Amino acid sequence: MATGYVAMSLQRYPLVDQLADALRARVRDGEWEVGSRIPSETQLSAELGVGRSTVREAIRQLVGSGMLAARQGAGVFVVSTEEVADWPTVVRKAAIADVIEVRLAIEVEAARLAAVRRTDDDLIRLRKAIARRDGLSTRDREQFVDADLAFHAAILEAAGNPVLTALFESFLSRLREALLAYMDILDLAPTPAQTASEMHRAIYDAIWYRDAERAAAISRDHLERMHTRLMGRT
Questions:
Q1: Could you give the residue ranges of the DSSP H alpha helices within 37-161?
Q2: Residues of the chain with CATH 1.20.120.530
């Protein structure tokens, strides 16, 4: 079947475009399923009888359209059976997802430590941050994001680890930018915001009860839900 794809007349349009169409057809026909790794450039070059540079350019077209994704050191994978028209949004989502990954690395452990080390003053700061956030509408996005960040910063302070705090503060401006972009892309509505508020209160409760594992688990769940919603899996 692969040879048939390449047997089209080469005079009709450039070989790279022909090859991109051939690879696109493999994805849409289910020969390469979503989540699977496609053959290497060398394998495709030998199989299809074209140069590696041609294969590389064809793959680049499909990566650019959102059907394929290159993963450092792992290869090229199928991520969608359809091409994405709004590619700039895909790029923005990927940047926000990177920030969420950093948050997972910092904030989950911070919540765990906060439950162990928190003081009464820390609890007061957390309650004030929750109250301020809950009193704002998501329509006031900058104020809402600042209030949200104040809650997470209070958790970092309660954790009592200066290294974690320094890491958090070092990318705080980028985190703020990512949260604003997140709200802009998803046009955040009251329901998801309310769900997040409930999870913030649940994190606070776990910290109040000094339940370190629950505080960490809820923090992780909160951030993973953000990632899932961002990438459109719910």
A1: 41-48, 52-64, 87-117, 120-134, 141-159
A2: 87-230
